[in-house]
Design a protein that fits this description.
Layout: H1 4-24, H2 30-43, H3 50-73, H4 77-94, H5 97-113, H6 117-127, H7 136-152, H8 156-171, H9 187-202, H10 208-221, H11 227-244, H12 247-261, H13 267-280, H14 287-300
Helix pairs in contact: 1-2, 1-3, 2-3, 3-4, 3-5, 4-5, 5-6, 5-7, 6-7, 7-8, 7-9, 8-9, 9-10, 9-11, 10-11, 11-12, 11-13, 12-13, 12-14, 13-14
């Protein structure tokens, strides 16, 4: 018999692994969280009071999402897609609209990262169906995912509009009304995600100040609990300055980003550093930039 105790345990496991992932990256404990998910899936076949079944589905879906995002961060993309689809099925069967939105947002981010922004845009817009059932925080998260997809598709005017929609939604955020697992989406996360979306425009010479300000706000605002997000925002900011500004400033920013990313086992963070090194190649005559490139190459060689 599965009851409230088991539901609480699954949720606690999902929260613990999610916190670990945000701080240290998805590569360290992926096998452990997969084993936990296999156990949680077995609970779905156990006897359960009807009133508890939806809560169990949501808890297992939440854990499935955490497991999928860890796989995404480790570039186990097929595993991530399977886990996201499983988690989405749990959320939809439970009628859990906030969890459904979060899973589709992560599916959008993975698709965009894998070079399919059109699919990412589809996932984001699927999640925005019946947005009236979502909090301002969740709506902001989804408009930001939509903006990132549009930026990759070079639909720049629509990207800027989507960022504006995200800002308006975030202004309506009431954290007390959000599920506990949405707590990560704070002002720093919003600044970073919108900054990432505008980055696509900024490297083309548009919205440079806005994008850099948002990324700087994110890098400054993320605490140790969001160490991976902090490192990625720092790296994106360094890349932007390397393209549009002073390479010496970019080298200093890049050194801080490298120091922040080195303890984190995240292939996404490592690839962002490789991108920074690629942009830095245009300034090989600057000693500090050349030194940064050498340090990045050494740090990411085994990631």
């Amino acid at each position: 018999m599965v009851g409230a105790t088991e539901v609480a345990e699954v949720r606690a496991a999902a929260q613990a692994f999610g916190s670990w992932d945000a701080r240290y990256g998805g590569g360290f404990v992926r096998e452990a969280v997969m084993a936990q998910l296999r156990f949680a899936v077995q609970l779905l076949g156990a006897r359960c009071p009807e009133r508890t079944h939806a809560e169990l589905l949501s808890a297992v879906g939440y854990l499935g999402h955490v497991t999928g995002f860890m796989a995404f961060d480790a570039y186990a993309h097929d595993d991530a897609r399977r886990m996201f689809r499983f988690a989405l099925g749990c959320a939809e069967e439970a009628g859990d609209w906030p969890l459904r939105a979060k899973i589709l947002s992560s599916m959008a981010r993975q698709a965009i990262w894998c070079g399919d922004p059109d699919a990412g845009l589809t996932f984001a817009e699927m999640a925005l169906v019946r947005a009236d059932r979502l909090t301002g925080t969740a709506q902001a998260m989804l408009h930001t995912a939509r903006a990132r997809a549009l930026g990759k598709l070079h639909r720049f005017q629509e990207t800027a509009m989507a960022v504006g929609n995200a800002d308006e939604a975030f202004a309506r955020a009431e954290p007390a009304n959000d599920p506990p697992w949405m707590a990560y989406y704070d002002a720093a996360q919003h600044a970073g995600d919108t900054g990432h979306a505008l980055w696509e425009l900024a490297v083309q010479g548009r919205f440079v100040t806005d994008a850099s300000t948002r990324l700087e706000t994110a890098a400054r605002g993320h605490g140790d609990g969001a160490a991976r997000s902090r490192a990625i925002s720092q790296t994106k900011l360094a890349s932007l300055i390397m393209v549009t500004g002073d390479p010496l400033e970019a080298a200093a920013l890049g050194a801080r980003a490298l120091a922040a990313a080195t303890p984190i086992k995240s292939r996404r963070a490592a690839d962002d550093l490789r991108v920074l090194s690629g942009y830095a190649r245009a300034h090989q005559d600057v000693g500090e930039v050349t030194e940064l490139r050498g340090r990045i190459e050494s740090a990411v060689a085994t990631v």
